[in-house]
Amino acid sequence: MDGTGPGGVARTTTAAATAIHASTGRACASVAACAQLAGNCCPNDYGMFLGCCTQGGRRVQSVSLPAMIKKGFTIDDTTQQYCPGKIPQEWPNAETLVSSMRLFHAWSSAWEATESRRREVFREIADFATRQGVKLLVGTPVTCIQADDDRNWQWTKELLAQLGPNQVMGLAVGNELELLFEKEDVDKECITELWEGGRLLEALKRRVEEFDKMGFKSVPVTVVFTARVLGGTGGMPFMEVQGQALANSFLLAATRLYGPRFAFTINVYPYFDGNLNFNILSTNPLKRSESNCSDAIDQATCWDRSRCLGPGIMTAARRKITQLTQHLDTTFWIGEIGWSSPRTSTLGTHMEGCEEFSGMAAFEKFYKGFLEWDLTLPSGERGPDHAFYFTLRDSLNFGMKEHFGLLNSCESLECKIKSSSYQAPDCPLKPDGLAWRTYAFAGLGVLVLLAAVAACIYMRSPRVQEWCLGGSKKVRPRQLSESSSSDSER
To answer: What is the CA 59 to chain-centroid distance, rounded?
Structure first.
């Protein structure tokens, strides 16, 4: 793979796909803008939404959607665990098909689910990827607990085997490990072992070796970092601090091992930039507004100017990658980039006090800019080769609710960005595989009720008892007086 993204994706409608989507359409007559058309429109019988379905509904209006083959979105834990069958075929608020996704992990030991449910989720994801021609960046964790890592890797291999090389754009071993030293519950010996002891590099070698044996030799490999890793010192492009992270040494070793196959992946979040602040007052340049943060919103949500934070971080990353590898065309992916609305509880910057910063208008502006972005950089530096938007649905992160999702929950395909009159269409995907359980439990409940009624009739009716006993024994009703007297004699 040349690092330019999952190109050449076939978009054929197979008989299987047709069968899955048959009879799921919504009549054109039920949608005002489609009323002049016959049959089903929203979706049609092939599961696709016609343009009239969303006229006046979705608020993101883009003149063009460039480079969408090089863009994907991340799959949050909520979607992966609870509703993998409700991954939309099209980008939210945009009439263009999804071509790539990022999975942070194949499965999590923290999820309370059976083995059969895990296999069902894997099957749902693999079926979607194959049916839609979607490629996945699949992650496998590296933590302080080797046994957990090994178990997660077995799950990852199970999913990879179902996907196959044609549906995998990369393997990501570890995520944001340069931030591990900041966590209070992490043993310092673990940090030393990972970096100074070389465990991260050894983990990468072992995983890639097995990955190759499974038939993925031509598929890129990567380790995901945050923009924090760009803080190199002493002439080194990347972070190199004893007891924290030796990222520069690691990246140098990884590129020597795998050459152009190794992709640099960095998560970029203008939303969390600690330098953003309230506007400087025009009447007093030494003071700032207590409520107006329009300058910060503009700087954090724009994509086409040199002052824009996102492209600025990417420019710095590209330059540092070139410095390390001495190649201008090294594969560079954006692992995550997104915006939160409403405000996430982990914001922790000056913008925590600005309501508009995490408002829907800023959320829409950032996402609209991402859709219209052609992956070039205002600086003229080579842009990233692929970018993943974070994320599909709102979800929990270490027990705290985050609001970066383009959709709210598994309960609906309704987009966050919508006009007040917009109604989300029915899900065009195949039904949830767990739906049969509802009918099974309902049937069981009816059987239990019938059994209880039959038992009650049997106990109350002597004639029924006589009939059940085949008439071989006469049953005389026991009178209350007899019962009382016999009880008193005991």
So the answer is: 22
DSSP string, 9-28: ------HHHHHHHTT---BG
Asked whether residue 348 carries a pLDDT value surpassing 90, the answer given is yes
Q: What token pair was written down for 196?
A: 């100074």
Grouping H, G, I as helix, E, B as strand and the rest as coil, residue 429 is coil
Query: Would you give the end-to-end CA distance of the chain in angstroms?
Result: 91
| pLDDT value for 125 | 98
Q: Where are the beta strands (DSSP E) in 129-190?
A: 135-140, 168-175
Q: Is 15 helix (H, G, I), strand (E, B) or coil?
A: helix
**What letter would DSSP give residue 246?**
E
> Could you tell me the pLDDT band of residue 60, with boundaries at 50, 70 and 90?
low
> How many whole angstroms separate alpha carbon 450 and alpha carbon 444?
10
- 169: Cβ–Cβ under 8 A, 6 or more apart, which residues? 1, 5, 6, 100, 135, 136, 137, 219, 220, 386
**Cα dihedral across residues 209, 213, 218, 221: positive or negative:** negative
Helix, strand, or coil here: 400? strand
Q: 436: pLDDT confidence band, cut at 50, 70 and 90?
A: very low
d(CA 392, CA 367): 12
Q: For the residues 271-283, what does the mean pLDDT come to?
A: 95
* Per-residue DSSP letter, 160: H
Q: Are 238 and 320 in contact (CB under 8 A)?
A: yes
Cα dihedral sign for 449, 453, 454, 456? positive
The structure's pTM equals 0.77
Structure tokens at 329: 């065309």
- Residue-wise DSSP of 435-454: HHHHHHHHHHHHHHHHHHHH
Task: Write down the pLDDT at residue 354.
Answer: 97
In which element (H, E) is residue 101 found?
A: strand 100-103
- Reported as a single tens digit per residue, the pLDDT across 244-257 is 999 999 999 999 99
H or E stretch covering 486: helix 480-489
Q: What is the DSSP letter of 337?
A: E
**% of residues, the chain, pLDDT over 70:** 75
